[in-house]
Amino acid sequence: MTITFHQVLHDELPTVLNLFKEAAEKIAKKHIDHWQYWKNPPAEKTEWVQDGINKNEYFFIKNTNHATIGMVRILNEDILYWGEQKEPALYVHSLIVKEAYNGSGLGKLVLEAVAGQAKSKQRKFLRLDADSKNPKLCKYYENLGFNKVGEKTLPLSTYNLYEKTIL
């Protein structure tokens, strides 16, 4: 599968929030208490997304037919979850694959593409987090070679912090 990343534009906040809501509904069907706040996001989460859009960190993932099949946020730093870091890294948040593309290898493909960006930018690590209440997702990242290096507790949940060495 060939994918491309398309910058999310300022007026596309409703589309981004809808992708989060769809993902929350998909996760709820699996009886996992993860991301359920996206069904009716609190103001601080909506502001967090808007800030990321303003900083050009959000991308729609499109297939060869230009259909949006997912979304990802790519950051150069992640103070909220990781704090100040000495080693250069790229950070992944909000990786969403539309339900119709589950099991297609799209998540792995996206992470490989972002790892390629990290390498080209001379970043030592690719980092991400996963809600600790979603053990299947945590295992998925571990199976892709990410190592759990810590935890971060925030008001809505506790998150496992993962990194993968790139360089």
Automatic annotation (TrEMBL):
<feature type="domain" description="N-acetyltransferase">
    <location>
        <begin position="3"/>
        <end position="167"/>
    </location>
</feature>
<dbReference type="Pfam" id="PF00583">
    <property type="entry name" value="Acetyltransf_1"/>
</dbReference>
<dbReference type="GO" id="GO:0016747">
    <property type="term" value="F:acyltransferase activity, transferring groups other than amino-acyl groups"/>
</dbReference>
<dbReference type="InterPro" id="IPR016181">
    <property type="entry name" value="Acyl_CoA_acyltransferase"/>
</dbReference>
<protein>
    <submittedName>
        <fullName>GNAT family N-acetyltransferase</fullName>
    </submittedName>
</protein>
<dbReference type="InterPro" id="IPR050276">
    <property type="entry name" value="MshD_Acetyltransferase"/>
</dbReference>
<dbReference type="InterPro" id="IPR000182">
    <property type="entry name" value="GNAT_dom"/>
</dbReference>
